[in-house]
Structures are given as C-alpha cells and as structure tokens.
C-alpha cells in the first residue's frame, strides 16, 4: 500500500524528467538525421534551467496564472492516471490545462500568439473526441471508467481495442507538436507563425510551459501504455517507440493545414474507432 | 395543515407582489417590492426545503377559479391574435378554447385529489425559481434603469416589466407544484403570456414580431396539453399526473406522455421549435436570464423529468424523446461556434444544454436521471450568471458583437471576471456543469440500450464544439496590449453586485459541495422511482462505473491561484510589447513600422466558420430533421 503510494509519487515527480529526456533524445536524433551534430541530450534541461532564472518579459499580466495552471493541471491529470482514478476525468483535467495554454496565448495582443491560440483550439478539437472516446472504449471493455478496474479485470486492451490505439497514434503528432500536425506551434522558429502559442511566453512562464509540455507528453504516452496492461513495461516501451516513430514522420512530412488535420483526425480517427466499436459489439465483448 | 399556506404562498405571494409592482411608478417603492420579493421567496423556498415533501388538496372552488382564469387568458390570446392579425395565434387559441368549452359542456369533473404534490423535484425547481429567479429580478432593477436611459423613454415602462417578471415567478411555482394537469396547463399558459409580453417589452417592430413567434410556438404546447387532457379524462379517467405515471402502460398513456413531451419541446425550444428562443433574445437581458435560460425554458425539461418514470415503461417513446434532445444538443453546440452575437451564443448553448438534459432523461436510467438533475441545477446558475454579465457589458459597450469585446478584461475587470467565471463553470472541471457532462457520458455509456454508443458519440462531438466556442470567447476578452497601469475596477450599482456575486458564490460553493446537491436534492427526487447505487466518500462522487474526485481538483485549483499570486509577487518582470516582426510605435500599441517606415495597423480576429457552417442553410436542414424526429416520437406511441 505505502510502497504503491511512494512509487506513484516518484513516478509523478519523474515524469517531467523522462519527458525532458525524450525531447533531448528527439533533438539529437533529428539533428543526426539532418547531418548535424545536435545539442547534448540534456539540452532541454539546460534550457529550462536558464529560462527559470530569467527575468520575464511580460506582454500580458495574465501569463503567470495561466502558465502555472497549464503546468499544474497537467500534473494533476497525470496524477489521476498514476493513482488509477477515472480516465475520463483525467482527460477532462488535461483539457483544462490545454484551455489554460490557449487563454495564455490569446491574452497577449500579438498576431503570432493569437493565431497560435486559434490553431491550438483546432488541435484540441481534433484530438479531444478521440481521447474521450478512448476512455469510452476502455469502459466498453471492462465496464468501468476507473483505471484501477482495468488492472483488476486482467484484460489486455490492445487485443480488443486496436482501432482506438491506431486512432491515438494518429493524434500523437499533435500532442508531441510534430509534423504533419505541428500547426499551432513549431519546434523550429522559422515558420510564418513564429513560435505560435509560445511566442509571447518568456522566462519563468515559458519554463513552466515547457515542463507542462513534458508532463503532457508522458500523460499521453501513459495512455498508450495502458493498452498493454498488465505488462506496463512492454506498454511503455511501445509508447516510446511510437514517440520516436512520430519523430521520424516529423522529418519526412511537411506540415499540413489545419483543415487537413481536422479532416484526417475526424474521418480516419473516428472511422478506426467506429469500426472497432462495431466489431466489439458484433463479437459481444 | 401548515402545508397549505406554504404551497399557496409560493403561488399567490408573487402574484400579489406583481400587482403591487404594476403600480410602482416610484423608484423607492419598486426597489422595496423587488427586494422583498427576493427575501420572502428565498425564505419561503428554504422553508419548503426543510418542510419536505407533502400533498395538498384544494376544494373544487379553486378548480373553478382556475377554469375561469384560464378562459380569460385564452380569450386574451385570441384578442392578441386579432389585433396583431396573426392567423396562427388565432387558430391555435381556438383549438384550445373550443375543446375546453366542449369539455365544460359535457360537465367533466376536473377535480383531482391531491391538487398539489410536492416532491424533491418540485422543491429543486422551486429553489431555482425563488432564489435564482428573484435574484435576476433584483438585477433587473439596475438594468432596466440603464436600459430606459439608453432608449430615452418619456414614461417609464418598468411597472409593467416587473409585473410580468414577478407574476412569472408565481406561475412557474404553479407549474412545478401542480399534480392536476389542468392546473399545470393553466400555469403553463401564464408563463407563455409573460414570455410574450416580456419579449415585446421594447415595442419595436422586430420585438413584436419575435414575441408573436414565441407566442404561437408556445401555443402549440398549449394545444398539446388540451389534447392530452382529453386523452387523460376520456381514456385514462384521471387528470392526475402521478396517477397516470403509476398506471399500467397502454397506448393511451403513451399518447398522453408523447403529447406532454411535445409541449415540453416547445417550451424548452428543442429542435424544430428552437427559432423562437433565438428571436426572444431581442428582449431586455434580465428576461433572457430569467425566462430564456434559468427558469421558464426549464419548465419543459421539468415536465420531461416529471414524466420520465412513466416514459421508462415505454422505452421506444423514451428513446425517441432522447433523440430529440440529442439532435438539439449536437446541432446547437456546432451552430454556437458560428455566432458573433453574445446573446445568440448563450441562446444556442441554452438549447444545447436543455437538449442534453432531455437526452439524459430520455435514456432513463437512474444515473442518466442523476446527470439530468445536476445539469438542471448547475445550468440554471451558470447560464443565468452569464446572461447577467452579458447584460452589464452590453449596457456599457453598447454592442453584442463579441468581436468588439476584445480586451474587455482591461476595461471592465469586475464584470469580465464574472463572465469568465461563468464561462469556465460551463465547461471546465472541477465545476458543476462539467460534473454533469462527465456523469452524462459515463451514465449514457453504461446504459443498457443498444444505441448507447451513438448517443455517447453525439455527446463527445457536441462537447468538443462546446469547448471550442467557450474558450475562444473567453480568450478574446483577455486579449490586450501590455500595460503597466493598475486595473481600475469599475463601479457597479448595488443590485448588480447583489445578484451577480450571490449567484457566482452559490455556483462555486455548490460546485465544491456537489455531493450535497446529490444527497439533499437529486437522490431524494429520484428515490421514489429509481434506485441509484453511488456513494459520496469525503464529498467526492463515487459511482459503480467511475469516480469524480471533486476535492483534490478544487485543492489543485486553489494551489494554482496561490502559486500564480506568489509568482506574480516574486518575479517582477519587465513589461514588453509583443513580437511583431517590425518596429514598435511607442504611442500606438496597435501598429508597427516595417520597411519604408510606414505604420501598419494590425488586428486580431477570432474564428467563427460562419461561411462553412452557414447558419440559415443549416437551420433549414435541422428543422426538417427535427420534424422527422417529432413524427418518430408519435410513431413510437403505437
């Protein structure tokens, strides 16, 4: 009991570090693919530490509250997941974090962060239904939204919910902010939207946003890993592979427009889920 | 015995106060009447809550009084139809007068025992009507003063306005207390009258037109009631709703319930009757807050919740009702994205949320009914608050176009904060509406019907649209150029402060204590008909299929505020203009210079998709589907 509690808390504390490390490896590998040497793997941490101590350039007085809301609610959402609470509630809590970021980006009157915020809303519109339907998919399988019961049921969801898993892989690039769906913000600051949603955040606030992004990434990868319960180690391994695969795709594909993003996620993503549901109902699981 | 003054005072006291306010040309008197309405009704409804459920039978003379008043009312509608030369109003009124006269001629007994049944559903509704409703009347004191100032009226129309507002409270209490369908029908028609009069209050051409639209659509509900009464009296031998709910299901009880559902759809502005509610937005904003969001439109929802135990025995009909709600929720949530006018967004969102409640009631499992109850309570508070905020803003910026509300937080920090809180409470955790939506998804998913998953998908898609239109509206109000100036909090008149602060506080407190609403109102309301398995450990909500941890989330929210405050204190930043890819102009934060040193003005604009969503075209299609679904409802009777 206490051991489980301690390991859960350790996992939550470690989450941003794992997320940061993933981003560091990502940058290194991307650089190698482009025949560059690339930054050290720990570079994301150096960046955040540097930002942490910087004096913020405030272009909107609301940024501190909205940046910390983004970070903290990402952590709360992850905590709900780690403590095996209600999956649907965890997803709604993550939506609260997302909305905080959007509000933060709109709050500065800058064309670049404003357009980033608009596009971020469309990204939410693209992946939110798929995430929520995933929670419903788990319900269909184990007759409960509580993750604890998934472990009790002793079922490996991937065997029954492959369509849901594929739909989540489809929206993974949105969560990881990667091409073809990095339309609201890009890692590379040479696009027409500058840094999109992040443009107006700076200093400590930007550090919080970066940390929040890492936590969010781990949140999403954890949901992927849940498909392989009870073997969470295998699940995490596959989730990491999925992340690096999205990096590969990032380097191959150009960015799409938001229209294509909406079309693809809503048509292909929902179709995958619907076919999966139809099969589940047909087989009477 | 003490039940009689209690029930009677809930209906009669507002009528008396309304009559006094009809003669209150003096400002002090008007304030006194409205504030005492608020205090008295709040006290009486609190008394009702502590008194608990009871039944009451009025003598047949009271039935006679209701009959006479009802005919007077119908003839008044007929009169309106003639002077406005509106064929539909005349026709729909005659369709009620003639059958009712025949009804009297064959000397049918309309007496029912008991006349009034108070259960926790009625108590919940009464609390909403008496507390939220009368707070909106308080708000109207300031609003109507500002409103008439803008209109430059020679003679004030406020006495008439407050007469109908307060009369409406009494009529609404009558609707939710009556067991006799005839009584229910009468009070229902009084609310239709108040609705008509309050929409046309400003007496502009458009207002008269929209009021007539609301009237004839409302009268369809009246006709449905009259037919239902015939079915009840001739085939089911009773006019008592509770007896019909307990009766063995038959084709006639199904027809009766279908007719009541039709009346409910007209009142709650469900598709295909949604156009009247959008037109009704022309009324002064307190009317929209009171009638068109927090109470009157809830009469329809109330009726569906009331007959839900009967519908449960007739599953095809119940699911047909659910599908009308589902269509309304889905389409209006999407259409709301395309709207630029503040009150139209609120109206679409209201229709959507009422649809959501009807969907839940139609699915008709214990858990969906619980979700419906929570949505009912929290929607009344949150949406009422949003209308109040929108009204204050409108009287100051003199526009309803939300594109012009850019950076409103800087100009009117207090009002805007109230609006922002109201919006957050509509769709974000850990607040009440989100709790309701969360419960709705889990409850519908866990319902035994085979089409459950299609209803869930509708909930998810509609919910995603909801997130989009609320967030973009909130975001636009925050958008402002950087500034060092301390925000100057605007001064608001006391009635504004009293009403908006109270409702905000109630909404936040009961979001945190949602378990208390569940335990004290929702569960007792459902208990006679449904058995619900859930527990409330430490005031969190634990179902057999899920759990909503209110308190950890509330604690996180508090922590965010504390940390943000600490950061703002400790990390003093430099105020910096946004990145513009050019040179800033000191005096003008809305422009920048680039090549050739020519200043370029830049704007930020929100997304609406009004071209691709195409409201007028889409509305035709939606109405057509709505009519088909109504046919489905009635074909489910057989």
Automatic annotation (TrEMBL), chain A:
It comes from the Archaea. Keywords: Membrane, Transmembrane, Transmembrane helix. PANTHER family: FORMATE HYDROGENLYASE SUBUNIT 4, FORMATE HYDROGENLYASE SUBUNIT 4-RELATED. The chain crosses the membrane at residues 6-25, 64-83, 89-109, 121-142, 154-172, 217-249, 261-283. It is found in: Membrane. Pfam families: NADHdh (PF00146). It is a multi-pass membrane protein. The keyword Metal-binding does not apply. This is NADH-quinone oxidoreductase subunit H. GO terms for cellular component: plasma membrane.
């Amino acid at each position: 009991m206490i051991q489980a509690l301690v390991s859960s808390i350790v996992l939550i504390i470690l989450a941003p570090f794992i997320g940061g490390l993933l981003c560091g490896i990502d940058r290194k590998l991307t650089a190698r693919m482009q025949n560059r040497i690339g930054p050290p793997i720990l570079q994301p941490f150096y960046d955040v530490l540097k930002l942490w101590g910087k004096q913020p350039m405030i272009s909107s007085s609301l940024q501190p509250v909205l940046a910390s809301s983004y970070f903290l609610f990402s952590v709360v959402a992850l905590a709900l997941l780690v403590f095996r609470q209600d999956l649907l509630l965890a997803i709604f809590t993550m939506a609260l974090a997302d909305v905080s970021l959007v509000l933060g980006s709109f709050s500065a009157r800058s064309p670049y962060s404003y357009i980033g915020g608009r596009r971020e809303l469309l990204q939410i519109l693209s992946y939110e239904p798929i995430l929520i339907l995933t929670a419903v998919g788990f319900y269909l399988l184990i007759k409960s939204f509580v993750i604890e019961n998934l472990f009790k049921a002793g079922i490996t969801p991937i065997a029954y919910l492959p369509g849901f898993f594929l739909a989540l892989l489809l929206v993974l690039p949105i969560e990881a902010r990667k091409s073809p769906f990095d339309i609201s913000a890009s890692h590379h600051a040479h696009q027409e939207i500058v840094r999109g949603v992040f443009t107006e955040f700076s200093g400590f606030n930007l550090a919080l946003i970066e940390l929040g992004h890492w936590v969010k990434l781990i949140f999403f990868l954890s949901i992927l890993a849940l498909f392989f319960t009870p073997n969470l180690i295998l699940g995490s391994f596959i989730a990491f592979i999925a992340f690096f695969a999205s990096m590969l795709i990032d380097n191959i594909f150009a960015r799409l427009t938001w229209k294509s993003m909406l079309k693809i996620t809503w048509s292909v993503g929902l179709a995958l889920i619907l076919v999966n549901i139809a099969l589940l109902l047909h087989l009477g699981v | 015995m003490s039940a009689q003054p209690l029930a009677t005072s809930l209906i009669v006291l507002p009528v008396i106060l309304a009559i006094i306010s009809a003669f209150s040309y003096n400002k002090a008197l008007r304030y006194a009447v409205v504030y005492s309405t608020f205090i008295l009704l709040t006290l009486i409804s609190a008394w009702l809550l502590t008194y608990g459920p009871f039944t009451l039978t009025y003598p047949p003379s009271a039935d006679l009084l209701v009959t006479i008043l009802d005919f007077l009312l119908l003839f008044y509608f007929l009169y309106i139809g003639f002077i406005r030369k509106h064929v539909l109003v005349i026709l729909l009124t005659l369709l009620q007068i003639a059958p009712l006269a025949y009804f009297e001629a064959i000397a049918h007994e309309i007496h029912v025992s008991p006349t009034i049944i108070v259960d926790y559903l009625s108590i919940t509704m009464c609390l909403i009507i008496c507390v939220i409703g009368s707070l909106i009347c308080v708000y109207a004191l300031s609003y109507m003063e500002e409103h008439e100032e803008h209109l430059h009226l020679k003679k004030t129309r406020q006495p008439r306005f407050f007469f109908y507002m307060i009369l409406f409270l009494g009529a609404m209490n009558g609707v939710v207390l009556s067991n006799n369908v005839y009584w229910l029908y009468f009070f229902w028609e009084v609310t239709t009258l108040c609705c008509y009069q309050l929409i046309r209050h400003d007496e502009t051409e458009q207002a008269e037109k929209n009021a007539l639209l609301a009237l004839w659509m409302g009268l369809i509900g009246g006709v449905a009631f009259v037919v239902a009464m015939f079915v009840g009296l001739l085939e089911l031998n009773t006019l008592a709703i509770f007896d019909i709910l307990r009766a063995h299901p038959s084709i006639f009880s199904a027809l009766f319930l279908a007719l009541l559902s039709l009346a409910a759809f007209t009142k709650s502005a469900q598709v295909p009757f949604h156009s009247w509610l959008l037109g009704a937005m022309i009324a002064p904003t307190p009317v929209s807050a009171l009638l068109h969001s927090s109470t009157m439109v809830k009469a329809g929802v109330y009726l569906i919740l009331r007959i839900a135990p009967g519908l449960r025995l007739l599953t095809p009909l119940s699911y047909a009702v659910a599908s009308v709600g589902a269509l309304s929720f889905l389409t209006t949530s999407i259409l709301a994205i395309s709207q630029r006018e503040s009150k139209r967004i609120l109206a679409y969102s209201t229709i959507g949320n009422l649809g959501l409640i009807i969907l839940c009631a139609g699915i008709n499992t214990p858990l969906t009914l619980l979700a419906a109850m929570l949505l009912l309570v929290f929607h009344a508070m949150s949406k009422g608050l949003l209308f109040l905020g929108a009204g204050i803003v409108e009287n100051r910026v003199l526009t309803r176009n939300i594109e012009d509300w850019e950076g409103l937080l800087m100009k009117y920090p207090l009002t805007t904060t109230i609006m922002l809180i109201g919006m957050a409470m509509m769709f974000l955790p850990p607040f009440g509406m989100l709790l309701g939506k969360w419960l709705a998804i889990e409850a519908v998913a866990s319902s035994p019907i085979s089409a459950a998953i299609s209803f869930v998908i509708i909930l998810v898609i509609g919910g995603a649209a909801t997130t989009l239109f609320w967030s973009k509206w909130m975001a636009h109000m925050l958008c402002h150029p950087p500034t060092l100036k301390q925000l100057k909090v605007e001064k608001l008149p006391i009635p504004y402060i009293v009403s908006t602060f109270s409702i905000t506080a109630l909404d936040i407190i009961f979001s945190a204590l949602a378990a208390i609403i569940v335990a004290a109102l929702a569960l007792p309301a459902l208990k006679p008909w449904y058995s619900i398995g859930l527990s409330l450990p430490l005031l969190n909500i634990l179902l057999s299929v899920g759990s909503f941890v209110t308190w950890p989330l509330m604690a996180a929210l508090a922590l965010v505020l504390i940390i943000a405050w600490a950061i703002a204190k400790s990390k003093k930043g430099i105020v910096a203009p946004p990145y513009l890819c050019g040179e800033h102009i000191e005096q003008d934060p809305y422009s920048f210079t680039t090549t050739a040193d020519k200043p370029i003005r830049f704007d930020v604009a929100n997304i609406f998709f009004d071209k691709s969503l195409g409201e007028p075209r889409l509305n035709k299609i939606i109405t057509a589907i709505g009519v088909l679904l109504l046919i489905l409802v009635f074909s489910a009777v057989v």
